[in-house]
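Think of the structure tokens as a kind of shorthand, similar to the way a musician reads notation: each symbol stands for something richer, in this case the local conformation of the backbone. In the example below we present two proteins back to back. Begin with the first one, reading the sequence and then the tokens, and try to describe in your own words what changes along the chain.
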Amino acid sequence: MSILAPDGWLNDAITHLNDFLWTYILIGTLIGCGIWFTIRTRFVQFRMVGEMVRLLADSTVKNVGQKHISSFQAFAVSVATRVGTGNLAGVATAIAIGGPGAVFWMWMIALIGSATAFVESTLAQLFKVRHKDSFIGGPAYYIQRGMHNRWMAVVFAILLTITFGLSYNSIQSNTICHAMNEAFGWNRTITGLFLVALSLVVVFGGIHRIAKVSSVIVPVMAIGYFILAAVIVIMNIHLLPHVFKTIIANAFGIEQVAGGGLGVTMMNGIKRGLFSNEAGEGSAPNVAATASVSHPVKQGLIQALGVFTDTLLVCSCTAFIILISGLYTTPGLNGIALTQSALQSEVGAAGPTFIAVAIFLFAFSSIIGNYYYGEANIRFLLAKKEKEGKSYVLFIYRLCSGGVMVLFGALASLEIVWNLGDVCMALLTACNLIAIITLGKYAFRLLDDYRTQKRQGIKEPTFHGSQIPEIEKDLDAWGEVSVQSSEF
């Protein structure tokens, strides 16, 4: 029996570890952190939605002769990794295993998790560093510079590289290959090899090519999918009260509590919600740090908006389509196949084809975005080697991320790639939560400063490292306000 089979010993071992980590460590910690950050920031994710939208609309780069990443491009890359397999296949898996109530818990983790996303991305901006023609940063950087803890920063960087650059890319590839096989009957191995070639072309181009590709693909695919889902929902508007009733009833239903199913419902909703929106996972801060802004809070607000975009819009679209179809009760129907079947029941034979094309765009953009997260952390680990011109690790990583793991995902079972991804996600998130709980005080101070400047009538607040004197020496990128504020 192949170890890549869903009933193999490898999958069993990964499943048991996955259940332990999520049941005893992550669920309560994620919810607790989200509530704490929501209260401490005075509900920033609700009170400042208007400012989030304004900042995103205004984020254009005007640094003549400099290659900076704009707020919108950073937002697009992070949404590229968020809006992907988790929205189409992940939601279907959560509903198939945890029932309709899992959708409610996806919503909850997004609502409170957006405050967590704000904190981690603000910290990433605060502790970012200059790197050649752009900025670079993320949890590994704020752990080392803010907590002065090198070993923990190294552990995080390794975990993130494994999780996103390797494990998550196998999930994206697996979903693409299943979708193409379901819609067109394409051989998964051939599709996988095609993906490998396409991925390597992009990942060898660096963050500027990734940002360019993502800023084009993401808006088009997200808007197109949302419009289709909205049309389907409007066509079935009379079923919406029943859909919401089903979600709420299953989220808190007596049957779920009595049968021990409430825990399964919560776990699957929260796991798939986190996989999709990444709030607290420590991934989005890596690209949030690359943006050129005049105040760290600006990118924190924009990244918080990304959580809403992902879960409350795109994930909900998929959930409504599946629940309206009623196919989630069909035995053996799971993952992307469930989403394709649900769409087919609503729009006809074109449904699976549309989803196959959509998942290709969603998941491929996630592959290249995931790759960058790993690259940023490998550069952190090998900073000295890069200066000496002696590092070949990045080249090997590119081959593994865009090649080996993409092909592995094409050949492995759905169960193995998702369980492996959940284990990696749990370890990564636990490490990041420790860091942002410790350093959150700086994000709160920055938010207070930003709000104070806005109340004073300053349209575009600015920040200088001297405003936090106790850590000014660790704020490499904030010595000159003009470099940051020239974006506007």
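Once you have a description of the first chain, move to the second and do the same.
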Amino acid sequence: MADQDATLQVSARLEEGVRTSLELHVRRPDGGVEVYPFPRATVELELGEGRIQFKWQSGQVSFRNLATAEPVYKDGELVRAGRLEVGAGLEYCGHRVRLWDPEQAPAYLKGYSAPYSGEIWPLGEGEYPIGRPGQRDNAITLDHPTVSRKHATIAKKNGNYLLLAESATNPVCLGGQELEPGQWAHVQDGDLLEVGELVFRFQSPSASAAASSLIQVRSLGNFLATVGGNVVGDKDWKTQHIKWLFAHLAYEWGRPVAIEGLLEELWPDFPSDRSKNNLNYSLSTLRQVLRACLPEDMRKSELILRSSSSLQLNPELLDQHDVVYLRRQLALVQPGEDWERAAERAVLAYTGPLLQDCYLDWVAPLRQSLELEVLDVAKRLLEQRARARNWEGSVAVAGHVLQIDPCAQWACLLLMQALRSSQRAAEALRIFEQTRKTLLKELEIEPDLELLREHQKVLSALT
């Protein structure tokens, strides 16, 4: 990785200058932020070990990854190129890049439902009618069967944004609560709006920018959450249900989680009304717990978004999660010249069982499948390195596998072979004895024949 304290490298192609207020805001891994305008139509940034190109044309910005070995993510999805909307961001080589417009409207709506996913509607002064094409001139036109022709209106009054429900036949929901026709409600940064079956998020850029990247989570091994730079202690969660509710939302990392599934998961034997009351209490307490970790000027930030049917962590506020990193590394294990490098990064990213202290039903199958996927990648990697006689590259990976599964005889065999071939037979003998004791204690079995044969080769090497 490049020096995190160094200024990022930037180049602008020798093209005619452009007239735009758009800027690229780059947040480095150390938390520092650098701002780059568009002096030319094409700007390239060197971020860590990668290089990414941004091109301005006709008021729109596109991006392209110039380093094939370094992945770029937009909205959590792996991409190589695409369009970058104002307010949208990319994750690349440990950096976060957001497209910003200092002259833009003070707020906007962002679509989260097809066919409007990712679409952005700037909101300024005045009123913004929402509805299907037909009876009136809607500022936000949504051609969808669950949207009425006069469905709702967003308006800015006295410096605040408000939502008016107008449809008598199709729902208007704010934060999971349905509004009555004719009812006004205040809209705050991060709120989820539902227009029929379409979901949107209201954002106020100044508030979102101030509170960006607040949440860090570790779910591999012992669970740990850091919010606003403060660790949430085990007693701070109040109850285990609240802790594991947050852990589930964190596992999905900004994607919606169905409320019905959470009710069944956390209170499977409770009547519907009681489990819903429990969820409402847990969610209210969870919000209090998280906000208590924030600086005073950020406590209005909405960390958990609610619709009528789902909950999710606010995607704009997410920073790092070890499970997300691991899954991304596993997705990069594809045939090609970088296969070994991607496989090793994926295996070493696994630092313990998923939520090892959680015994809820949803965790067990995910924990098992994730570990099996990592071990499968590790086995293929070690077998490849054994064929190539890359003994040095095998030792660290095989040793890591034995930490994951001390009874993995195939990993013990490959590690012993690598150590013996590197003239480290004494270490190989120690690994064998340790694995043998574990097999007897945990499974009440002796090492298999192949491992015993390798043991004899190690003994011969010592004599």
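Compare your description with these statements about the second chain. The first helix runs from residue 205 to 210.
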